[in-house]
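S1.2 Input.
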Amino acid sequence: MIQDWHELLSRPEYGTRTEKDIFVTMRDGVRLAADVYRPDGDGKFPALLSVSPYSKDVQKLPVREYPTDRDLGNGGIECGDTDYFVSRGYVHVIADARGTGVSEGGYRVFSEKEQQDGYDLIEWIAAQPWCNGNVGMLGSSYFAMIQLLVAAQQPPHLKAICPVDSATDFYRHWGYHGGMLNVSFVSTWWDGSLVVNNVGPSDLEAAQTESIRENLMNDPEIRAYPRLWKAARWPETNPHLFDILAHPLNGPWYKERSASEKFDRIRVPTCLIGRWTSAYIHLPGSFSAFAHIQAPKKLMITNPESGVGFNRPWHENHDIVLRWYDHWLKGNDTGVMKEAPIHLYIEGRNEYRHENEWPLARTQWTKYHLGLQGGLKTGQPGWNEKPDRFTSNSLLMPGEKVPALRYATAPLAQDLEITGPIALELHAAIDGPDTNWIVELTEVGTTGAETRVSIGWLRASHREIDAEQSKPWQPVHPHTRSDPVEPGKVIRYSIEIREISHVFRAGNRMQLVVKAQDAPWEGTSYIYKISYHVPPIRDTRHTIYHTPEHPSHLLLPVIPA
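S1.3 Output.
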């Protein structure tokens, strides 16, 4: 009989001792505040560090559990269930990032100083009489992103990490999607989650800041969006948003904060946990980190209990995290390294499956061409196929339908599994200098109901391709310059669509939606509220071509039955 790995995990056998507001001195003299929760037994224990700007004290409020929702006010409670880990023989240290909560210093999101603080905290923890010298890190989202950045600092006593929901590219995953400002998230994150007591110095010189402010305040897109204009006019009200607006192109400011720039420096065992519902920010980070970190590693992509985000306070996956740390911090054989490195939840089939690589070796890369009358098929388009058109609506009112084109297969004769990264090659012309391309892959049921499966974005002026990093199934755009489009010219756009593992059911249709704007009322999920983008400021006509000369198509990772 095969033993259930849950039986191999540490058992709950300890109570909790609590020490509040311990001040730890960093290398530059700044003191960070931390709370220490440790087992009430004798001896030394491994420790888990959680750091964020969301306040260590907020993490312990007795709030009601909800699916992730900023409006409910508990989105930042993400450090994990302290009692779960302490009772199983781990010390949990929760610290306020510099400039936040009751810590000293000045806060600047994911700055190099904040990353160095993680190093210093870990080495302080390892030197305490209650620690056995083995330290890991704990938490999701912000708490996960800082794990990778701290691991790249290579503190000697950090023995493993387990990031849950971690973006890794601060430009592409956080600030800008395909070069499009992620306005609803970055404009509300600062005042919706953070507890900042002192803002650190800007990377910009005063004269440079003033010049940027004036340019932003006169930018037509900024002027059309009052929330952005106010951030440009008064940067101190939302320093993070101003920093994002001040850096519209990828460069050093983002690279400092991107774990993707430091993967080669991460040497500790890494367990990456993500979810299919986090395509907007976290999902691509899990895949990117797994592809590039050269250390013992695992990847698990799941769907949360709520079907949206992991519930807050975050408590899901704790058995997975415990299994990882029991192995690497306690030396217990939990069997975790005897399994295949990837564990995927297969949507539509609603089951888990182990895999050995990504993309899967058995993938059948298949082109689905856009065609006549909104068709989507594996056959080549005809020479005489006329193009399709839609016009974006710069004055779209709440509740109005977003202008779009739809291309769908015939009802599927059998189940179709698509597992892997996806690319869209779109041949199109516009009648202006720029636009947004937003593309969605959906499943259309027999009643006509549509379910979004994945999404991709590209600002037309950011169409330049990084040929060295790109793959046929995953185009990479440098986003280092903005190149206006020649109106009326047919251009090939290569658009990355987020990774999926989804079975389209027999009788349903697979559909591609192409549009130039999104809206928070398009769906009922909170995801629609926090991840929409500034629409084109002028009505723009979009013309999509599908002929042998201009073969617009999806490249899909079909997995044979």
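S1.4 Remarks. The two ends are 29 Å apart (CA to CA).
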